[in-house]
Amino acid sequence: MKTNYILAISGNDIFSGGGLYADLATYTTNHLHGFVAVTCLTAMTENGFEVFATDNTVFGHQLKSLKDVDFAGIKLGLLPNVDVAEQALDFVKAHAGIPVVLDPVLVCKESHDVEVSALREELLKFFPYATIITPNLVEAELLSQKTIKSLEDMKAVAKELHELGAKNVVIKGGNRLSKELALDVFYDGQDFKVLESPVSSKNNVGAGCTFASSIASQLVLGKTPLEAVEISKDFVYQAILHSDQYGVKQNYEN
User: Fold this and answer.
1) Among 13, 42, 133, 175, which is most buried by a count of CB atoms within 10 Å?
2) Residues in domain Pyridoxamine kinase/Phosphomethylpyrimidine kinase (predicted)?
3) Closest listed residue to residue 231, CA positions, set 180, 179, 184
4) pLDDT, tens digit, for every residue of 121-139?
5) CB-based contact 225:198 (threshold 8 Å)
């Protein structure tokens, strides 16, 4: 019998807008029972926003604790290093046959070339096991090693990521290509679908995490990948539209 158990393998956002907080809130909204394996902690320090990876042994114990849970779906968020990513991949392989959404979070590490290169190679290993991947423009550029400057570029990179093993790809354009519309491109290996919604200036912290965890939720609920993406696109837009103006001044004081 199919359960409503869904796992987030994701990080702790100190400002509680993204990461595991967004994942659990989205799961609850969809009446699913969410579990979390925490990949990292974050904090503002004198060096800016920093990511502190969960100890490799501790992360392994988390996954072992959950190995017998009958999950109906898995969403993967920030994987801070190769060790954590390798363990997460082994866990995904051991849970074949259920929807898996990979949100390949690389942006917070994009200035560290060696680390990004190693993580890129590791993330590519997830592609054959993921139902859908959800990179934003910068992440799609890092994964494909191509520059995206137009909607046609988005389509070309989506096709390339599919050829690298991803079954379904949605590239999140945000407002980088248009100041009026948030443009996303979905590709399933045969057809492209361009999705758009108005750009809102309200609180959008955690939008990418919410989008991926909503897609995972909809897949668990029986929707097709395209249906899941379309529903989740609207869900995120409505969430931003009805959000408050909460914000945190990201500075560090001794």
Assistant:
1) 133
2) 13-248
3) 184
4) 999 999 999 999 999 999 9
5) no
Record the tokens describing residue 105, joined without a space.
């979070």
Query: Which residues constitute the domain of residue 9?
Result: 5-241
Rg (CA), the chain: 17
List, in sequence order, every beta strand (DSSP E) within the chain: 5-10, 33-38, 40-45, 48-53, 73-76, 100-102, 132-133, 169-172, 181-187, 192-198
Q: How far apart are CA 225 and CA 161, in angstroms?
A: 16
What CATH number is associated with residue 143? 3.40.1190.20
Task: Tell me, yes or no, whether 247 lies in a domain.
Answer: no
> What is the C-alpha end-to-end distance of the chain, expressed in Å?
53
- pLDDT tens, 18-59? 899 999 999 999 999 999 999 999 998 898 888 899 999 999
103: tokens are: 């949100």
95-120 tens-digit pLDDT:
999 999 999 988 654 444 556 788 99
Residue type, position 67, single letter: K
Q: Note the pTM of the prediction, 2 decimals.
A: 0.91
pLDDT of residue 254: 40
∠ CA 144-148-153, rounded to 5° = 90
